[in-house]
Batch of 3 targets.
Target 1
Amino acid sequence: MTVCFFGCDYKYETEAVLKQFLPLESFGFEYGSVPDGDHIIISVSGDVLEAEVSVGGRIVKKNSVHSDEYTDEAELSRMLFKSLSEITGITPKWGCLTGIRPVRKINALSAKGLDKSGIFAEMKKSYFTSDEKLELAYLTSVTQKKALDELGSGTYSLYIAIPFCPSRCRYCSFVSHSIASEKARALIPQYTEKLCGELEAISSTAEKLGLVLDTIYIGGGTPTAMPAGELEKIMKKTAECFDISRVREYTAEAGRADSIDEEKLEVIKKYGATRISVNPQTMIDSVLAAAGREHTAEQFVKCFELARSMGFDNINTDVIAGLPTDTAEGFRYTIDALADMSPEAVTVHTLTVKRSADLFSESDKMRDEVSPETVDDMVSYAFRKLTAENYSPYYLYRQKNTVGNLENVGYARAGYESLYNIYIMEEIQSILAAGASASTKLVGHGRIKRVMNYKYPYEYIKGFDEMIRRKSEITDFFREEKL
Ligand code: SF4
């Protein structure tokens, strides 16, 4: 599909709307000419904005005269959405709302004093968003309000990245090394040593700036893929460098059942983490095998029960809607089985297919296997079942290239909403991050700055001194922003 611009250049807006209808397609852009074949023409002439969509010989044209109600970009998104809906017969449930944080729009309208019906009316008028998605976003906004209100100034969160996993899942697009490889395993001791050094540097920077640590998140990868002794060194160093007693939430992702044992859970408990994540992704063994996860549903249940027996009373469980070979019935079984186990939180992701995932090369096949309609059915069921079981959505985000353009939603029982997840999504608290591929996010007065670490463990080890030098950017930022 080629997009042709005359008298304007709205590449970003056009692509964002097109992705809703054609998530895995790439688009060409031309200026001042129109090629043969499927195309979209966007033109601006004086006050008139025009969009012509031509697909498979069918043509839909729309135009609008510039007004103060919508920007030209917003009006273009609306026209394109309507035209593509007419031509494809598809009406994406989020409408032409394309950003990754839909709840922000709800929060902003609520801050203007609109009540629920006013917010729904405004969102439908501007973005054509469906009632179902508005209900989800509105409930999320209501649930997370307390956490947003309670955020103290001068606080920060600490993220610690462990980019190792027992093996690589086929849908994985993260920077994570499978420790099945001898080469990756050999990096772990050096990685631990450098990571501990970076934790010291972050602690000293935060102390000089007078920042108060609020939440900690050890993620990955799979932190429990590390041998217990290495995990202990990292968590011990964290406890030495930071005042854990004032931390309101401390999460350690345990992740895959094939990486969890009693010794590692003991380490997590001993050094103060109170929230863990044990992730089945699906409760169907054949789907786990198709996803390349080398554990069974029964192993997950055993890990969950082990964690419970050891006193973990805040457990999150992740699932994915749209895994290859899964079905609507299979996904319902997964959600029902999890609800019966009564974890404190369930996070429902929609499968994302990225170039770095092994599945990408099979994406067409995968789309045949799990249609967007089935994935839509899956996430709708999760919403209905989990809210009926007293879970509320508390954070929500959308990603590019998800099957069906759907969302990722964290559901939790009251009082178990993850503060870290809410703050990272709303970008209202700085995150100082340690480890390979970690990104420090500094939040100022209307300004956000990122300081990136090296991506892969071997680069991280090799470029450690340079990375520590970059930590001075944190101090510069806080001084410039007078925080
Ligand atoms: S457990 Fe997560 S990070 Fe590790 S390979 Fe699987 S998807 Fe990737």
Note: Residues 182-209 form the longest helix (28 residues).
Target 2
Amino acid sequence: MDKDMQSEAISAWGQKGDIEKALMVGIHGVTEFKHDEKVYYLGEFKENMIIQLSQKQVAQAAIYPEVIRALKDKRATKMIIDGSMSSRYIEKYKKLATKMNKPYIVRSDPEFKGATGLLVISDEAVERQVITVEDRSVRLKRLGMSSALINAVGKKICKKCFEQILKIDPKESPNYNELTFLDRIGGERCPAHQVTK
Ligand SMILES: [Zn+2]
């Protein structure tokens, strides 16, 4: 654009009314708006999301079964993990993605805002209304699981407790191990069963 045309364009802009300006920003400012949205979702578009975990949820010892379900979704193309989180929290999800043959990206950006810890996304718009996940302790408590059992994630539990998990939510069973015969002989006790209410 030469100087004259540029000044003409500027003066033309100056003659436009506020409503017209707002409309033009509405059309041309979409990119900017999307950028603002993306900083809350680890650099991704919200419409492409299948599921979102908060940093707090990622930091919990259990793997959310909802993430496994999302990775099984045919539309799911990859997992994005917030790189500002400790590797001891995100390692289990990196392993999970690898196991399920889905690529993952650990992404850090000082511009990121909010508390998104992990996303499973699609390459195209999914437009899910609800992408957040209910906290597992809240959900399992509602389903009737004792706090002791909810918190015994990753520990070895007795057969009775394991059966309770299978009854309440079988998808939670990978988060637990069952005490073996040898464990019991060795004196190991179920941390959940002892304190069940
Ligand atoms: Zn038990």
Note: The longest strand covers residues 76-82.
Target 3
Amino acid sequence: MSSGRLFRNQVVSNELQHKAILVHDHLCTEYGCPIPYFHNLDPLSELVSSLLSHRTKNRDSGKAYNQLRALFPTWEVVRDAPVEDVQQAIAPCTFPETKAPCLKQVLRLITEQRGELNLDFLADLSISEARKWLESLPGVGPKTSAAVLCFSQLRRRALPVDSHHHRVAIRLGLIPAKTAVGPAHALLEAQLPEAWNAQQIYDNHEVLMLHGQRCCYFAKPDCQRCAVLDLCPFGQNRLAESG
Ligand code: SF4
């Protein structure tokens, strides 16, 4: 048995995996899987997009990304541009004063390490090697490394966990209540069957995120019409307490 398989068996009970699959199936019925991919960017562009999206609404980070692309013809030009110009271009996202120097530093480091601004080589690495390489870059954690591999044209098998996904997973009891978003990535991904393909992993993220956006709200989740109420201890307790 490989060490990866052994670790997986140690941390994921059959019961938890069964529950994760039931949640996935119920929510896929609710939101309609397979979910179309929302991006078709090369991996470097996806990395830039992900870095801009940290703690920013999708609409605002999308605007910042589009402005950056419109004003700078290539990522090399962004790398070499004055930081003030980059900051101005990405002004619609949060913390442009921090993100602009970070972005330029990431582009410089990739150039130093790879000799060019291109991340297509990640397709030839194992998923764990690709994630490790990405997470060695400043500002890149498990969510961003998973987003680059999953959302980009690489279409690889990696599970991003955003704040909606994280909240829903805790309420459903898939992960302990105090689990932070970072460690939640490995725990939730380990619950998904090894045989699932990249589209199924992507669907799992998307349906849990959509559920957080459309039903399991941060304040006042709409438990009475929830498609996974029968699997959710938090929602069942909440409804029982409200009589
Ligand atoms: S039952 Fe309520 S708390 Fe549980 S997942 Fe559904 S909406 Fe969220």
Note: Residues 1-10 have pLDDT under 50 and may be disordered.
